[in-house]
Amino acid sequence: MSSSKLSIEKFNEIRREILQTWPTGHGLSLEEGIAYQKTIPEAKNFAVAMRKASQAGKTLLQPRAGVALIQDHIKLLQYLENEGEADLLPTTIDAYTRQNRYQEAALGIEKSLQARTSLLNGFPAVNHGLAGCRQVTESVKSPIQVRHGTPDARLLAEITLAGGFTSYEGGGISYNIPYTKKVPLQKSIDDWKYVDRLVGIYEEHGIHINREPFGPLTGTLVPPFVSHVVAIIEGILALRQGVKSITLGYGQGGNLFQDVAALISLKNLAHEFFAREGFKDYELTTVFHQWMGGFPEDEAKAFGVISWGAAVAVLAGADKVIVKSPHEAMGIPTKEANAQGLRCTRQAVSMLRDQKFPIGSEHRVEIEQIEKEVRSIMEAVYRLGNGDIEAGIVAAFEAGVMDVPFAPSVYNHGKILPMRDNNGFIRVFNKGNLALSDDIMAYHREKLEERAKAEGRNVCFQMVTDDIYAISKGALVGRPR
Amino acid sequence: MSSSKLSIEKFNEIRREILQTWPTGHGLSLEEGIAYQKTIPEAKNFAVAMRKASQAGKTLLQPRAGVALIQDHIKLLQYLENEGEADLLPTTIDAYTRQNRYQEAALGIEKSLQARTSLLNGFPAVNHGLAGCRQVTESVKSPIQVRHGTPDARLLAEITLAGGFTSYEGGGISYNIPYTKKVPLQKSIDDWKYVDRLVGIYEEHGIHINREPFGPLTGTLVPPFVSHVVAIIEGILALRQGVKSITLGYGQGGNLFQDVAALISLKNLAHEFFAREGFKDYELTTVFHQWMGGFPEDEAKAFGVISWGAAVAVLAGADKVIVKSPHEAMGIPTKEANAQGLRCTRQAVSMLRDQKFPIGSEHRVEIEQIEKEVRSIMEAVYRLGNGDIEAGIVAAFEAGVMDVPFAPSVYNHGKILPMRDNNGFIRVFNKGNLALSDDIMAYHREKLEERAKAEGRNVCFQMVTDDIYAISKGALVGRPR
Amino acid sequence: MSATNIVLGVIGFDCHSVGNKILEAWFTESGFKVTNLGVMVSQEEFIAAAIETDAKAILVSSLYGHGEIDCAGLREKCIEKGLEDILLYVGGNLVVGKTPFPQVEEKFLKMGYDRVFGPDCSLEKVSEMLKADIAAKAK
Amino acid sequence: MSATNIVLGVIGFDCHSVGNKILEAWFTESGFKVTNLGVMVSQEEFIAAAIETDAKAILVSSLYGHGEIDCAGLREKCIEKGLEDILLYVGGNLVVGKTPFPQVEEKFLKMGYDRVFGPDCSLEKVSEMLKADIAAKAK
Ligand code: B12
Ligand code: B12
User: Fold this and answer.
1) What domain range includes position D53?
2) Which of A193, A291, B408, D100 has its CA 20 to 30 A from that of A234?
3) A98 a catalytic residue
4) Chain A to chain D, count of Cβ pairs less than 8 Å apart?
5) What is the ipTM of this complex?
6) Ligand 2: distance of its center to the CA of B290 in Å?
7) What is the pTM of this model?
């Protein structure tokens, strides 16, 4: 498959196959799906909501949530909408569905019915099918999105988009590398090309569907440039298939200045590379994820983490913030805990929304640093792909020129080691084969040596482990005990 | 009484009188108190803890807490020390004791015994006397401070300092204007001169006692310059009586930049005016109070306020932060809720302590603005007092040249009306007789007009009311509904 | 119809003045003639002011936690002084500690207050109630 | 004494790889010979690896909430395959939702796991226990 737009013939060929893979796909009509989407009021359109938020300088709040059974899921969403005052709703898909294991999902539904509680970690949308999805999307007032982690999300997309969802998370890289072990990167990129093309077809029929690559990747000490490269490339791949509304994401790193610099540079860089690829007609918005790594178990401490993430989201000017709950370290939140996370976030967001955050010169240095790093990797990707970003990124992952820390995929090089510097900025300790120039690495090394000196130890692997645990143990930088 | 150091004769004369006012004062020996203080280990000395925190660039955590009965109070403090991980402990005094109504306090103790729960809003230290206080201070590991709101705090000081407390909050202005209705300012200043002299005598005997003027005043939309003037003057009055360890306070305003500017300017200005008064030999530290105005009732939202206060305390470089609880809007917190506030704060403080906050040029403008305002009032005070700050401040309050918003005291002019600007900075809407120059007021007015324009209404009194409720209703600026 | 007189104040040794200033502004705007005694008001002062102004209601605030002690006995004292018919409203953070409101309400109703309010009460509703209660008494 | 073999992995369709990498580093440093199967490991893969390496213990992780479904039956399958004596440890966020640990523990003990751990477990204590349990079995 080439990196150009998927032809309608090829699309239809794949479509026929994919709809056969589970009974709820049989006979699904795209025309009917489009007709159904036309009946959805604009106030419930996710893409429109994102655009309006961006224009108004607002930060919208969205939780994660999904349970096994339709009625329970509806109650959950309504609770988050009413008691949680969420602006945008999710439907988080369970982990069996994410692996296309609809048989196991069916078992999970059954066991959940017996146990009278959800034994699945999300909503098995494929099993519930079109009617189930429409029941859900019709019973809420807010725009609603599918959130998952599915390398092959084609059937799920067919069912949920026809089912009334107006935004779809994921991408061929971001839903592969952090989420799977053995799916070849080219395979997931191809499968996501189908999803993006499907969204493109909706767009061509006047249905605005929002697409959101998954920003935070492994959520654990991911340096901004790493996730930016993935976000930008997935953005390009989506635009190529006709996607118009794109929301790029970034997971909180922890240092205020690095996080603000990251969000500002993400937007700049996306426009830069989208232009380079010849795209003009798109709506770009951003999403900031509250801390995606290990959380403290104590709920009061978790609130501290949640609220700090909310504050930074606003200071960074994110159009949306994804909200964690005080149960994060322990398990999928109850609806009450989920709403608490939302209300804590709401308070911080509203207290901060009127505050301007002027960017000083020291800060500009960090913005430029991230931009330099991203351009450095992007150039290498283009080089490896002989000018084609898609071929390039597959080759880059293979060569370790692009590398995601702590990822489970065997198609990820896995040599990069990130580490915090003395101010808590996430830097690169071991670059593996990452395409970072010597002067970039010298800068990182200098910053890390600063920390080593302050801690009276050498830069070492133990620091990485200490940093992984740090926030869950109540600090940003993993200092020696 | 003059503004100079209280003579030992005068001190002793007052002392004899004051010890007679309640049985627990009878026969109290200053020598014995000093001897007792000498037995307290340095690790429990509040002044030392503040100095060390300042040197190490740490922000220490302190809750508020006090209940009627000794054993319950001890349990409460131990809980806050162990489960709450507080660095510094308080003993908050009940409101009857603050008004020297020891008879009512006795009734409160009795009723609390009957009700098996505290019916007093603090610890009645005078009623419990020397032995009771020592029981308390001996049963904790951390430095411990008396926190109250007592215009005439002489007997309380005698008992609690001899009782092993190593820090004493309050001052002749800050414990009068916001806390009482009919106590003449000169009277409370005189009575606090006694307290400061008592601390000075301890210092002369080698006992380091920390003194902390109450920074936040009415806690409600207090512009930084207003509380700074009070803090600096109370600092000078304390130093005059021989106090050596002084902690100046500031209550969170809500806008990150104004709050950081406030804490930086407070330190600069204090050194400036202390030097002008000829003081060199003192230890100056700062305390930041998490939001002191009306809180949201919802606990998740309260956590959002608490955590934001914690973050700003660290970014502003405060040596200590006074912590609120998620029960704030509703009532005196249970020990559990109090510890939750501490743990939420701890998480935010530790995540932020490594982060530098560079001061940009826009920010420097605000620091200079506050400095200009404070100097403007201070010059007027010196003028009114013919060079003497004490005479000057009494005259200034009388003339409204100095004025605290929303204060209950009839000795406060009460004409100043504060209001938030479009970014949430607290500005002056109505200056009353405040000694602020036309160009200062023009700056404030300009900022307020900016807001009025953004809200499509004229600058008006309704905005003040809206601002008072704003944070409890979930925002910083009280926008029209 | 001339404006109805009411008396307002914060009882005991309570210094919380912000809410009091807002209540004064609110009830004045709602058409009452308000005698605001400010903070730190004794039961005797409330009664004296009510008698002097021929007030139809006394609005007592208590924020600082000693409400239970400070507010007890006001009804009895009112009756003693001949104010049998006066409405007594009380509001604020009436007891020490976060307490379910129904418990607080019961306590203060038993003390003889006609209506009890938490810190979250809607002032619009309060002035409606007050007008209705005064009208009902007048019949 | 040569190092004891143990098998490590994250069961089911669970992709959480960070804890797994830390566990590998930890147990290697504690003197075990670790066969780390990584994430998304089936019961069959665990058993095959244990047989192949003659492992004394299988350490199963489950973070994503499906532990209750994924972990059931492993003990029975081990017995089937002749691993009667193998120690089974399980840890992580084992069930969906925040649940009091004793309830979780009981569930997994019943399934035949020898020891059950929450996400907050101290790795130092775990390796001590593991050494002691292996020694006890050896007797
Ligand atoms: C980072 C993260 C992710 C990353 C993972 C990236 C990656 N590839 O590793 C991403 C974003 C991809 C992700 C995805 C999902 N996640 Co996730 N994730 C987390 C998070 C925030 C941190 C996990 C982590 O790395 N911790 C740090 C490491 C060092 O700790 P650890 O993993 O707990 O491991 C330690 C201990 O558990 C223990 N331990 C573990 N196993 C064993 C075994 C033995 C024998 C012993 C002794 C000890 C032991 O020792 C380890 C080392 O200290 C946790 C919540 C948290 N803990 O704060 C949620 C969490 C684990 N995820 C959760 C879920 C549900 C998911 C998803 C299904 C999405 C969803 N529905 O929300 C998907 C999973 C999809 C899939 N197929 O697996 C839930 C699980 C819920 C539950 N059990 O009820 C959690 C708890 C969050 C929550 N509260 O909802 N996640
Ligand atoms: C600001 C403040 C202060 C300032 C007050 C400055 C001043 N002069 O006004 C300072 C710092 C000085 C202060 C001191 C103290 N405070 Co204070 N303070 C507050 C705080 C944070 C806000 C109060 C406020 O201004 N709110 C805004 C106004 C608009 O709302 P309001 O006061 O609630 O009034 C509204 C309603 O209650 C209602 N209402 C009030 N009365 C009535 C009456 C009627 C009839 C009706 C219908 C309605 C009504 O309408 C009002 C207008 O909307 C509250 C907690 C909170 N609410 O968040 C604590 C709080 C009231 N304080 C408290 C305490 C205990 C004290 C102290 C004793 C110190 C201590 N131990 O911690 C001292 C009091 C000393 C004394 N002698 O009184 C406690 C009371 C505890 C309890 N009841 O269990 C509170 C609840 C904090 C807490 N959770 O511990 N405080």
Assistant:
1) 5-138
2) A291
3) yes
4) 90
5) 0.96
6) 15
7) 0.96
